[in-house]
Specification:
The protein is of the alpha+beta class. Helices cover 38% and strands 28% of the residues.
Length: 183
């Protein structure tokens, strides 16, 4: 079993505090809403509580908008001995499990010219769903390709996107040539 880390910790250093602030702002809004519902306040106190409730709700929604993409994107891939993959976000929470026998295709998109940009890896599953990684550099994409065991001949470029053909994944790496269901 091996783990292939895609993201760098610097990309996520802001994310945990953002998530915690989002939770705190949501909790504050919930407490204020409950107190407004259950208790009697003067007009000035009600107005102040409604104002704080509104601003905390706005703050929570803006922070969740910033934090959600990193919770839903995978930052590491655990490759088991049988070739199955477990995709995890940066907190280590599993996002998806791909059995070794499941056909998949990888795309390295938006990596920039000569792989000098910052893009992402997209996994296209046999059922037509897609899973996106966190943003990675072109150099990190090349290192991940080597760690996964994809030979350079297995990759092709189309409109700036690096593609692999449909394949399954065995104990020793990719088994190229597996059919992939159309969307």
């Amino acid at each position: 079993m091996r783990e292939i880390a895609l993201g760098q910790w610097t990309y996520f250093a802001w994310h945990l505090p953002t998530t915690l602030l989002c939770i705190a702002a949501s909790a504050l809004a919930a407490v204020l809403a409950k107190s407004l519902w259950c208790e009697d306040f003067s007009l000035g106190e009600r107005r102040l509580r409604f104002s704080v409730l509104g601003w905390s709700a706005v703050l929570a929604s803006v922070l969740s908008l910033a934090a959600w993409p990193y919770l839903a994107a995978f930052a590491s891939v655990e490759v088991r001995r049988d070739g199955s993959w477990t995709l995890r976000n940066y907190l280590g929470v599993p996002i998806a499990v791909l059995p070794a026998s499941e056909s998949r295709r990888l795309e390295g998109e938006d990596l920039g010219g000569l792989n000098l940009g910052s893009g992402r890896i997209r996994v296209l599953r046999a059922d037509g769903t897609t899973l996106d990684s966190v943003r990675i550099s072109g150099q990190r994409f090349d290192r991940a390709r080597l760690e996964f065991g994809y030979p350079l001949e297995a990759l092709r470029t189309a409109r700036g996107t690096v593609l692999t053909g449909a394949h399954t994944f065995g104990p020793h790496g990719p088994v190229l040539g597996a059919p992939l269901a159309s969307r």
